[in-house]
Amino acid sequence: VRYISNRSSGKMGYAIAEAARRRGASVTLVSGPVSIAAATGVDVVPVESAAEMKAAMETALATADIVVMCAAVADYRVMEPAERKIKKTAEDLSLKLVRNPDILEGLGRAKSSRQILVGFAAETHDVVAYAAEKLRRKNADLFVANDVSRGDIGFGAEENEVQLLFADGATRKIEKASKIRIASAILDAARDLHQARSATA
Ligand code: CTP
User: Fold this and answer.
1) What is the mean pLDDT of residues 153-163?
2) Residue 21 exposure: Cα atoms within 13 Å on the Cβ side
3) pTM
4) Where are the alpha helices (DSSP H) in the chain?
5) What's the distance, Cα to Cα, between the start and end of the chain in Å?
6) Using N-to-C axis directions, what is the helix angle for 103-110 and 50-61, rounded to 10°?
7) Residue 198 binned pLDDT confidence (cut-offs 50, 70, 90)
């Protein structure tokens, strides 16, 4: 009847899955409930909670060269979900929330040195500084930072404009473009990192 979630249309993640599939990759798309369809040939694993997403991502990590964590995972969940609809009685209502596990951070600990891990940082201010801190903390190889305070890009929009941050401190701005073009630029960068890593391994 009621649930707590995070704002996301899923369009960016679905665009990344589609762009990867078009390149011939074998793609597993672990997705929360969204109202868009996955591209043909993409293997969809539907999940409904952060715990389910974590388990599905850990399974997918085992066979992945590149993992892109684009989901807007809820940071907290309700501690005691009600079995029945909560009726409106009192004037105010408090819900106790507990922290969800950080899926990307777990993947960052578990990945091998040949696997490329890509994270997203949706920020409203100090976009690059926060994204750089998350890249380090989550042991990612690449972070995609976007400014969600702008109405013309990001949440629910058809277009996006992002900055790529690399583990060596380099940054690259991707000009405003359709989410499928942005997806392609992200995959180019992830592929280059993967090729460089495989060459030195
Ligand atoms: N992420 C995750 N598991 C969570 C929360 C976030 O895997 N429980 C991932 C997101 O998919 C994204 C990255 O971590 O790739 C950053 O998510 P974001 O919400 O921007 O950052 P948080 O770490 O949750 O920090 P904060 O909410 O304080 O900005």
Assistant:
1) 81
2) 17
3) 0.94
4) 11-22, 50-61, 103-110, 127-137, 179-200
5) 51
6) 20
7) confident
Q: What pLDDT is recorded for position 200?
A: 78
* Three-class secondary structure of residue 149 per DSSP: coil
Q: Which residues approach ligand 1 with their CB closer than 6 A?
A: 50, 69, 71, 73, 75, 100, 102-104, 119-122, 134
Give the separation between CA 77 and CA 65, rounded to whole angstroms. 31
Cα gap 96→63, rounded to integer Å: 37
Q: Which amino acid is at 4?
A: I
Residue 78 in tokens: 């309700």
Q: Report the separation in Å between the CA atom of 178 and the middle of ligand 1, taken as the mean of its atom positions.
A: 23
Query: To 5 degrees, how large is the angle CA 86–CA 92–CA 94?
Result: 70
Q: Rounded to an integer, what distance in angstroms lies between the CA atom of residue 38 and that of residue 115?
A: 24
Q: Active site includes 100?
A: no
Q: pLDDT (tens digit, 9 = 90+) per residue, 66-99?
A: 999 999 999 999 999 999 999 999 999 999 999 9
